[in-house]
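Example 9 (inverse folding). The structure is encoded as follows.
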């Protein structure tokens, strides 16, 4: 199948960019022809895509007359450009919704727009995102929850054993709050290794991989990194600038997942000393929980498992068609691009 994956921007190692790259890597690995495109394309993302042998084409250079089996978009400006201006034809149109709060991630069609039998499905990444989007979705919109992805590399790197006590901690965050920076100092004073991985503070921006996290006994993070750690049986302490539940267990994982593992299920900051006490006290139970739930997490968050479970590539026997009427792009594309492209790059 020929599959086009479109974003507003492909520049950094942020959530939406990595999400698109993970989809393309998986689909190409399955024998499909997946191509990434965006309104803004730049390094360091382009270098990573080249290393992964994933083609990236600037949106302005797409062939207007080509048709695709699937057009899979994210972000309002990309949706409007692909469907409004280029009028690309496909057998199926998918649009991912990756945040409950960002304007860039809001549903790209007004609630009173009638799609009828058109082939568009919205893919929010959690119950929280779906609830937020539902107020603005078209009245006959189809939705399916596609949760943040855990590629095969994480499933294959599942840990068979854990340290008795935590000696090395990684915090994966582009925006570590003050209490996390203080926690780092407390942990180091207690003889632990504590590294911040990300663009914020003094951290280093890089793509998170199983090899990168291999030296650490536990990870502190939110969002996609939680899905990775769950699939790889890495003890994960869910906490960042929104707060968070800390260690996951059978009672906490449901509410945490429903809010994209953002920490919003348990909002509010906690002192660094309390965080360190929680980490030490709950580490062994968290290690056991990580080992017990790894196979469940792989089936729930795996890329191929989710695509198959939701049937996203099934039944593609319809005639390729454009999604929006010809006049849509002239009326709306420029407004969305001016308002959103510049603010996100």
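The amino acid assigned to each position is listed next.
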């Amino acid at each position: 199948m020929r599959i086009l994956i479109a974003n507003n921007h492909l520049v950094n190692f942020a959530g939406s960019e990595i999400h698109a790259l993970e989809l393309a890597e998986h689909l190409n690995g399955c024998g499909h022809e997946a191509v990434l495109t965006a309104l803004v394309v730049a390094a360091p993302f382009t270098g990573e895509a080249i290393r992964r042998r994933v083609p990236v084409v600037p949106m302005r250079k797409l062939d207007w007359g080509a048709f695709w089996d699937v057009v899979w978009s994210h972000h309002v400006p990309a949706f409007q450009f692909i469907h409004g201006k280029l009028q690309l034809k496909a057998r199926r149109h998918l649009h991912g919704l990756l945040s409950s709060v960002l304007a860039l991630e809001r549903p790209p069609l007004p609630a009173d727009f009638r799609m009828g039998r058109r082939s568009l499905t919205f893919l929010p990444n959690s119950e929280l995102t779906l609830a937020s989007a539902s107020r603005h979705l078209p009245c006959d919109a189809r939705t399916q929850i596609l949760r943040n992805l855990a590629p095969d590399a994480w499933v294959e790197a599942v840990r068979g054993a854990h340290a008795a006590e935590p000696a090395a901690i990684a915090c994966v965050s582009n925006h570590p709050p003050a209490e996390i920076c203080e926690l780092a100092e407390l942990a180091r004073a207690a003889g632990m290794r504590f590294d911040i991985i990300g663009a914020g503070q003094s951290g280093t921006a890089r793509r998170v991989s199983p090899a990168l996290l291999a030296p650490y006994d536990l990870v502190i993070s939110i969002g996609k990194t939680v899905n990775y750690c769950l699939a790889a049986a890495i003890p994960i302490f869910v906490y960042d600038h929104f707060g968070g539940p800390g260690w996951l267990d059978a009672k906490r994982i449901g509410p945490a997942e429903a809010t994209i593992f953002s920490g919003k299920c348990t909002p509010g900051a906690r002192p660094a000393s309390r965080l360190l006490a929680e980490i030490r006290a709950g580490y062994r139970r968290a290690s056991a929980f990580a080992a017990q739930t790894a196979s469940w997490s792989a089936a729930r968050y795996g890329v191929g498992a989710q695509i198959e479970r939701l049937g996203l590539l099934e039944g593609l026997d319809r005639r390729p068609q454009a999604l929006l009427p010809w006049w849509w792009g002239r009326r709306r594309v420029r407004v969305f691009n001016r308002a959103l492209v510049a603010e996100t790059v």
